Amino acid sequence: MTTPSTSSVDSGGTQGAGSNGSPRPLPEQRRSRGRATTPAAPREITTGFLAGRVIALGLVAAIDLYAGPPLISGRHWAGVVILAAVSLVIAYVYLSKRHVPVKYLLPGTIFLIAFQVLPVLYTLTTAVTNFGDGHRGNKDEAIVAIQTSSLQQVANAPEYGLSPALDKSDHLVFLLVTTDAAGDRKVQVGTADGLKDLPGANVGLTGKVTEADGYTILNAGDAAGRAEEIGAFAVPTGQGAIKSSGLSRAVELKATKLYDAGCDCVTDVASGTKYTADESKGYFVGPNGDNLSQGWKVNVGLHNFARLVNDPAISGPFLGSFVWNIVFALSSVFFSFALGMICALALHSPRVRGTKLYRTLLILPYAMPSFAMLLVWRDMFNTDFGLINRVFGSHIDWLGQPMTARFALILVNMWLGFPYMFLVATGALQAIPRELTEASSIDGATAWQGFKRVTLPLLLVALSPLLISSFAYNFNNFNAVQFITKGGPFPPDNASSGATDLLITYTYRLAFGGSGAQFGFAAAISTIIFAIVATMSAIAFRRTRKLEEVYS
Amino acid sequence: MRRRIVFAALGAAASASALAACGTDDKPAAAPSKDKGNGKLVIWADTKRTAVLKKYADQFGKDNGITVEVKEVAENLQTVFVTASQQGSGPDVVVGAHDWIGNLVQNGAIDPVQLSAEQKSTFAAAAVKAVTFNGQVYGAPYALENIALVRNTELAPTAPATLEDLVKAGQDLKKAGKVSEILLDQAGAQGDAYHIYPIYSSGGGSMFGLTSAGDPDPKNVTVNSPDSIAAFTKIKELGEKGSGALKTSIAAENVVATFTAKKAAFFITGAWNIADIKKAGIAYDITPVPAFAGGKPAQPFLGVQAFFVAAKGKSKALAQEFVANYVTNKEVALALYDADPRPPALLAAIDDAKAKDPDVAKWLDAGKDGLPMPVIPEMAAIWGPFGNAEVAVIKGGDPKTAADAAAKAINDAITKK
């Protein structure tokens, strides 16, 4: 049994993964180039140098001008401080001649913080709250919403034609017209103190006051300008208050639910039921466990994570989905890599003609938008109308049975994934010198042995990181499942977890499907999925490093 | 979903930090809210309604000396509205479906609209009922929608009196080789509670019990009541192991094409698909979905499009004026009808629309017994589990097992929230 000598593998390794070595000197070069700008020799200021600085700092200034005023007028002081600090750091780093490495690190660091660290932190902080539908705002907002939506028209109270007006001291008043059953009109003036009769006012055809002594009636434009004031204005009456309904009508309203800070509860005026604030749930809860629908966001600690473990309806399917999830990701990567590599090997052979045409054709699935392709595949799997059953003359309910649905998904994913694998394998193959396989065949190895002992290991060294990232991607391949099976088929006795559910689609349904959006819970599961993928990737990368150590 | 959260995170980061200083558009608007109101009304609507609303919104602006901005939100209007409202960058008025109300109210996103008794009487009674939640009217309705039986009159000249007649006529046509499907009622691999509901209700099925006030009661899920199980049994008889009228292979993506290719004579659908049917030159008629012989009436769900006043808008009084006193007029209703031909909710406009298009009367007739889609937020818990149960029985599964599983999943989703 002949094996290639270590030295030849070694050289192949460095060539095959040539990119591994070459970038290393780069920072050095950069640094030395950077140093040239420091005043060792009086540095000439090139146009490029100047333009670079001007553009970079100009961009920062533009962002400041764009974001600063709204932040200040919105009183987001924390935002203002961050904006100022970041701008100052950028200006200092790029205007000073020192800190050359920082000049290169800074943009990446800022983007890392903005697009990686902040979202992760936000997800983590969301995971310990009940943020979601019904719990979006704070408690004060919930109280306002409860009281506002409890305003009801007082039974048998008249409707008023409304003319907003100003009295002599420029206070807003409502001039109100009522018409009784006999058609007689009565004008009253409503102030913050209450209602008063107003004899002698002119009422126009539209049933609104057109003229009244001592009052300036606001025209439509003026009224619209004071719309907010008019909306907030209330004329107290015995039973409630007269409030505007728009700008031309007023109605007598009373609140049917009232908040009392003393008992921290909301009382239903009609029934006397007390709904007490429950700070652990973020709801006002009544004596029999009912809650008012408007809630607020509260910290629930690890409750969302505990649900994953304690709730059998969630933890049971979670394990099943997890196993299928791994099978799906592994087989997607394995089959698409196998097919891609076989195609690449076939076209790598010097005897094949027209490789360019073949390569173009093979890349086609990769070039087509996967969203559309997924939907096309879904339709092809249709039992009665689908292409596949028609071609084969079969009548298989592809997406309606667990095993066939899983098979279909992996097949589609292989079709979508192999062109990418084909591309990278082609690239990696070209970097493996032909002498190696020739040498092994001279030493008496069969083609299969040569492939298995020489080509494949070298390919894997180059492609392992890509395979791992492909695995991580497919682990969360939401699109493929959502577009083709939506997680189905579902067993008749379990409507929450289907046979092809990945953790991500399962989570999606739990978090957004059943009871509206539950961002807190979704964030908790996202955190778990993140931890799972990160752990598996870390282990896999560690193993690859061992592989590299052997072969390089 | 993770991506969504990341986007949400970015949104939050953007408003807080300078680096991604988007959202500036909203901030200047937020700033003057302490002033006396800025005489500006902002309306959000979906693509179809934006253009026609602009014209009438401009008129409203002129009448009141204000500026009115109509903004098109092409997708996920409800979610975008709730999120923007919470951030204080939402509109004053939003146009949407009445079954959003439960969710919008629990998020404190909309205010009640005080319509007078007289105003209420100008609308179709079902439309007012649909926009009423917890005894409050939350929007001004303007259009109705429901599904009906659309029939190819060349293939089936007479409307079937019962579902049994329909199946028989469909089977005869199929045997004669004229069609390939008995009935098109989209189900798909996930089921479709909205489209199966008329058949389900005719079989005696229901989703929720009623509270003393006559509203759907989320504490009383009736998906697995004996009556509902009987309805699922009837669906099973129409399913793949039965007469084959209902199939999971018939789905949203292929129903229209199958009907316009004349491969089926009967199609349960709504007004939104009529344009395609007309374009294909099919001679059609619209009749109510027939009931089972001796069964209950086949009730479609009734949907209502409405104008809502945003609770966190900046010009609420203007918004109230626009919704309660302006869009409730006939011209606006008719213009909206022209833009998107669903029957208007305003009684005065219905007659005009009927004169323009005979289909309007037929859609209304098909929806007259309709059940306004429940607005309670718990309705969101129904769709998935109910669809799964539907699929299970269409494929010949045991109705009781499927119904019990659906009821359990629905109750879990409602209580463990």
Provide an overview of this structure:
The complex is a heterodimer of chains A (552) and B (417). With 552 residues, chain A is α+β, with helices and mostly antiparallel strands. Chain A folds into 3 domains: 46-128; 151-255, no CATH class; 310-551, MetI-like fold (Orthogonal Bundle). Helices cover 58% and strands 12% of the residues of chain A. Chain A is built from 20 helices and 15 strands. Chain A has helices spanning 6-16, 18-21, 25-37, 47-73, 77-95, 100-127, 139-149, 220-225, 227-232, 303-310, 312-348, 355-367, 370-380, 387-392, 402-430, 434-442, 447-475, 478-484, 503-513, 519-551, and strands spanning 151-153, 160-166, 172-179, 185-191, 194-197, 202-203, 209-211, 216-217, 234-236, 241-244, 249-255, 257-260, 265-268, 274-278, 283-285. In chain A, strands 1, 2, 3, 4, 5, 8, 9, 10 and 11 form a 9-stranded antiparallel beta sheet that branches. In chain A, strands 12-13-14-15 form a 4-stranded antiparallel beta sheet. A two-stranded antiparallel ribbon of chain A has the order 6-7. In chain A, a hairpin with a 5-residue loop joins strand 3 (172-179) and strand 4 (185-191). In chain A, helix 4 (47-73) packs antiparallel against helix 5, helix 16 (434-442) packs across helix 17 and helix 17 runs antiparallel to helix 20 (519-551). The model of chain A is unreliable at 1-40 (pLDDT under 50). Chain B is α+β, with helices and mostly antiparallel strands and 417 residues long. Chain B has 2 domains: 20-145 and 303-372, D-Maltodextrin-Binding Protein, domain 2 (3-Layer(aba) Sandwich), CATH 3.40.190.10; 148-299 and 376-416, Periplasmic binding protein-like II (D-Maltodextrin-Binding Protein, domain 2, 3-Layer(aba) Sandwich), CATH 3.40.190.10. Chain B is globular, with a radius of gyration of 23 Å. The two termini of chain B are 18 Å apart. Residues 1-37 of chain B have low confidence and may be disordered. The chains are: A alpha+beta (552), B alpha+beta (417).
